[in-house]
Amino acid sequence: MTVDLETREVKKEEVFGEELAKGGRYRTGKTLMDLRAYEKDPLSPENPLVFAVGPLAGTSFSNANRTSVGTRSPLTLGIKEANGGGTFGYALAQLGVATLLLLGASRDWVVLHLKADGGVDFHPADFLLGLGNFEAARRLFERFGRRIAFALIGPVGEYLGLLSGIAFSDVDGRPSRLAARGGVGAVMGAKRVKAIVLDVPGRVEVWDKPKVTADMKRYAELLRQDDLVMKFYNAIGTMGMADFQNVFGGLPVRNFRQGQLAPPEAFRMGGQYIAPLNKARGGKQTHACMPGCVIQCSNVIVDERGEEVVSPLEYETIGLLGTNCGLEDPDQLARLNRLANDLGVDTIETGATLALLMEKGLAPWGDYAFMEAKLKALYAPTEEALFLAQGTARVGEALGLKRVPVIKRQAISAYDPRVVEATGITMMITAQGADHTAGNAPRLETRAMRVEEILEASYQAQVNAAANDSLGLCVFGGSVTNQKRAFIVEAVNHALGTDLEEGFFTALGAEVLRLEHRFNHLAGFTHEDDRLPEFFYQEPVPPKNYTARFRPEDLGPIYERLEDAAR
């Protein structure tokens, strides 16, 4: 479905077979290439904004209802795919929409409403403007009823702040599942779309319903039999990665000055401390963000009175908005996380930006009151807010700082590339900016490995991530999905009536990587843009005291696989 926001013309085109199977991140990237988005000003009406789901969306196939958002990023100036869970992708597929493409810009602020009867309404958005996401969500439910899903931008997206993401509704109606990175919320704001509301029909058509039902049950069984899924993601959630990285030495602490915040027995910013405390207070440590998911790695954090503070509190937020800013109190972090969700901002980019203010000496490390005040300042487009909302790279440049942890103008995720080297290589080479979700290998001890083995590990992680993103699957099921490719492809065949072979999975992931690198090449990027900031090469990070080893000139074996994209 294509919506021209200027003319309000809606076009629909049917897609079938393999074209439908190649959804999500592939579909957003292919659409952006076809429309030559690499030539467009990211905040102009000409820059497309694409929402795409995978071939199993709309069903209760576990963790298969991710929504990919694609555009030319106003933060990185390269291609961007940011994806999130929640109910938006589930509803979009049930409406029979595999791809929603927004073109142009509306004259006035609007709420798009995709209705169960196939119609599209344009409602004035005046009743939502200037509101935080939680109040805006309440008003959407009040106006359109409870049987809806939505995508929503917060106040930072309204004034085109590059910290802004797009919030999707979760299964309980919270506006808390963000396609967060790259400034995608600013692009939606530039189009003057405050929210997209979807009716939820409650059913979806598949090619062979009995086989799809059997596949859903089998996949759920495989996930429940997997130790990583059930003993880590289900039991503790992503916050358990903070405990691991604190021991491993790859945790970002005080603007990447250290890799460990505290000895393990004194560490309070990970799942080993937070999970039992939260459960004792009456919070939830197992919570599904999307319909049908059995991984349930989300959580609902409550305070000492048992009242909800935020859902979810995840590792990347712990790393960048927490330890990277010197915070040591998880209750303080949960309150900041709530503010960030209400503002609709990326906690990675926001945390990295706030850390630069402390780097500059404007506040002590871990100054909660200072951080809270800066977040609250983002609600209105004051001079201060417009400055902070530019993101880490631009704020760091304006402050004259040398230690600015970005690649392609995007903040580095919560894995120090000096220690978590395979993920560091991914963050260097991916066209997405410094994005760990493009291919993460967070537990890999690389110092005993050969260089070619580390490069191969990063590349394979990138292929797998791209394939999962294109199939609409959450990567947290990867310990099953990536080992059961034949089963996953057969499930797609049962859903669509295709005759795809097992090799489709890997080929799809590789094709996405080539496409994205080709886009960035056409947008003016070179291999030099893949270099880490210099301080990573110069400063050893305690406790392991490693410096970064990899530079663009060391990444040749991966570049060779992307050579079609580099010409």
UniProtKB/TrEMBL annotation:
<dbReference type="InterPro" id="IPR036503">
    <property type="entry name" value="Ald_Fedxn_OxRdtase_N_sf"/>
</dbReference>
<dbReference type="InterPro" id="IPR013984">
    <property type="entry name" value="Ald_Fedxn_OxRdtase_dom2"/>
</dbReference>
<dbReference type="GO" id="GO:0016625">
    <property type="term" value="F:oxidoreductase activity, acting on the aldehyde or oxo group of donors, iron-sulfur protein as acceptor"/>
</dbReference>
<dbReference type="GO" id="GO:0046872">
    <property type="term" value="F:metal ion binding"/>
</dbReference>
<feature type="domain" description="Aldehyde ferredoxin oxidoreductase N-terminal">
    <location>
        <begin position="1"/>
        <end position="204"/>
    </location>
</feature>
<dbReference type="InterPro" id="IPR013985">
    <property type="entry name" value="Ald_Fedxn_OxRdtase_dom3"/>
</dbReference>
<protein>
    <submittedName>
        <fullName>Aldehyde:ferredoxin oxidoreductase</fullName>
    </submittedName>
</protein>
<dbReference type="InterPro" id="IPR001203">
    <property type="entry name" value="OxRdtase_Ald_Fedxn_C"/>
</dbReference>
<keyword id="KW-0411">Iron-sulfur</keyword>
<dbReference type="GO" id="GO:0009055">
    <property type="term" value="F:electron transfer activity"/>
</dbReference>
<dbReference type="Pfam" id="PF01314">
    <property type="entry name" value="AFOR_C"/>
</dbReference>
<dbReference type="InterPro" id="IPR051919">
    <property type="entry name" value="W-dependent_AOR"/>
</dbReference>
<keyword id="KW-0004">4Fe-4S</keyword>
<keyword id="KW-0560">Oxidoreductase</keyword>
<dbReference type="Pfam" id="PF02730">
    <property type="entry name" value="AFOR_N"/>
</dbReference>
<keyword id="KW-0408">Iron</keyword>
<dbReference type="InterPro" id="IPR036021">
    <property type="entry name" value="Tungsten_al_ferr_oxy-like_C"/>
</dbReference>
<dbReference type="InterPro" id="IPR013983">
    <property type="entry name" value="Ald_Fedxn_OxRdtase_N"/>
</dbReference>
<keyword id="KW-0479">Metal-binding</keyword>
<comment type="similarity">
    <text>Belongs to the AOR/FOR family.</text>
</comment>
<dbReference type="GO" id="GO:0051539">
    <property type="term" value="F:4 iron, 4 sulfur cluster binding"/>
</dbReference>
